Amino acid sequence: MRIVNEFPREVIEEETWIPLKDGTRLAARIWRPKDGEQNPVPAILEYLPYRKRDLTLARDAQMHPYWAGHGYAGVRVDIRGSGESDGVLEDEYLQQELDDGVEILQWLEDQPWCDGQAAIIGISWGGFNGLQLAAMRPKQLKCIITICSTDDRYADDVHHMGGCLLGDNLSWASTMFDHNACPPDPDLVGDRWREMWHQRLEGSGLWLQKWLEHQRRDAYWKHGSVCEDFNDIQIPVYAVSGWADGYCNAVFRLLDGLTHVPAKGLVGPWAHKYPHMGVPGPAIGFLQETLRWFDHWMKGTDTGIMDEPRLRVWMQDSVPPSARYDVRPGRWVGEPNWPSDNIQPTAYKLTYGHDLVPEDTEVERKALDIQSPLFVGLYAGKWCSYNAPPDLPHDQRDEDGGALVFETPRLTEPLEICGQPYVELDVESDQPVAMVAVRLIDVQPNDKATRVSYGVLNLTHRDSDEFPEPLEPGKRYRVRVNLKHIAQKFPAGHSIRVSVSTVYWPLAWPAPKPVKLTVYLGDSKAILPVRPRRDADDAALPAFDEPEAAPPLEKTPIQPTHEEWTVIRDLANDKTTLQVINDEGLYRIERHNLEIGSRTTERYSYSGDDYQSLAGWTEWRRTFRRRNPEGEDWEVHTVTRTLMTSDPETFRIRATLDAYEGDSRVFAKTWDEAIPRDLV
């Protein structure tokens, strides 16, 4: 990444408070041109609960000054109840959060250095509330860039996929359990830090319980899902994601739904990262791309960005399977519109001989049974990859022993797909609650198998996520399993595999009991979105700039980091455990004389084929400390632990929260909750 030390406009930085009508103060850091009061500028808001003072400071320091140096005010605000902002954060995307966001925009309009215009940019949470605030139509908001976010909080978020409960639901709840237990910094809030901290410790609650109480698409999830009415959004939207990210599907749905406003889509090879820091690479000059967008919509500058294709995606070349990639080879391709007339849906039938054959082939109308062991999914990686620890899917041969496998002959010429693959299955189940997982796989000449895309479906949600219905054992159903959108090249000499299983643990929580599915062949088929090559059009696309950013934050490592993604098979006791460790070590932010450490451990386990032995366990350990040679040291530790188990009728959560000042435990709370399963 190229570091930019000088900008067209001199930048100043300030910490400030944004007062709200109810007396609450939100903590903000603002980077803006020094001459902003003489020459006012538009504001770019990033609105998050992830602590601007410390946990996102390194990222913020390279983006917001960059925008400020090019004639904007970069504004980073902590959501109510997070960082140094007043209050208690009780859940995601509450109406209070959005109402506060509208007040922030009103406050920005009134500042002497702001010209009255604002944009919102954000990744993940900040991408969510950017869409949600756009749907509220505040007059100051002129455009947004939403990155790694979703338009549908039930169908396509960290909680559920295809009506199945995701393992990332537990993982993400544990992340926020930790973050909500963090104290504000006394250097900013003074002596009231302890009172604010204890309010959060007592009041934030157990989010995992709240989420598990909503296992179908009810009003809880509809709130904040802009897909309920895309017409609520009346400003330009730039939607961005990566193929390794959990949220790539939303880019395509947004382009499909936002036909009444200018909209663009961009999907690279990246995990859950800003594209100028994108891994797997190649990263791009995304900050330059944001300036082209903001300059067009807020400064009236013809940057050419709207003359380019509506959708640009990274067409991935074939790679061997790996849990982590530095770079995914490929090329940029573009579609002038989405949905695209250039995509040719191409069907392949699943056969009794385990082949994938063209749709016009006559095949035997027989059936195959599958009852997968619980190990199918151990090598699936995370639903939402961060590419650290190594969390991408590994060789799929480790999974396919527990699946029905269907495969094409070796390809005689390359085939490229772009869009959403899906599979139509004729199935029957021996249980009233069942799931099916489908994987699309690139098989190399040496038989190594790389997962290209996948999807899971809770079969009780076959017709509706809002009104699921149990299956009638022995009855035959026709279902559609949507896989994640993807752009992928299958080279000549490779083959294409579709694998079908009844388990995908721990990426998705299994059905209440073991399930045997019968798949009827003849009409069951896989549909691939084939994209014929258009080399001249794709070669004419303008190249993205190389990544650049403002100078990095000065951080001093104190203790080393450690990452681990390990499958442990205890054959003597027939117990299997997936263990994930993400130890960020200990480091010092020199500008604040603040030392920060964290260590996350997750374990997902089962014994034999015992569905009641399924367990997910997480632990976060967090440290903040400041060594003060001229006064009293400040040191705070928190430990949060969550254990989730299940039986056929119930999900069970046991959780603990402990907080320490120095060596003294100053707060402790436990939870033991049972939530009935609702056709999950």
UniProtKB/TrEMBL annotation:
<dbReference type="InterPro" id="IPR008979">
    <property type="entry name" value="Galactose-bd-like_sf"/>
</dbReference>
<dbReference type="InterPro" id="IPR050585">
    <property type="entry name" value="Xaa-Pro_dipeptidyl-ppase/CocE"/>
</dbReference>
<protein>
    <submittedName>
        <fullName>Peptidase S15</fullName>
    </submittedName>
</protein>
<dbReference type="Pfam" id="PF02129">
    <property type="entry name" value="Peptidase_S15"/>
</dbReference>
<dbReference type="InterPro" id="IPR013736">
    <property type="entry name" value="Xaa-Pro_dipept_C"/>
</dbReference>
<dbReference type="InterPro" id="IPR005674">
    <property type="entry name" value="CocE/Ser_esterase"/>
</dbReference>
<dbReference type="Pfam" id="PF08530">
    <property type="entry name" value="PepX_C"/>
</dbReference>
<dbReference type="InterPro" id="IPR029058">
    <property type="entry name" value="AB_hydrolase_fold"/>
</dbReference>
<keyword id="KW-0378">Hydrolase</keyword>
<feature type="domain" description="Xaa-Pro dipeptidyl-peptidase C-terminal">
    <location>
        <begin position="291"/>
        <end position="550"/>
    </location>
</feature>
<dbReference type="InterPro" id="IPR000383">
    <property type="entry name" value="Xaa-Pro-like_dom"/>
</dbReference>
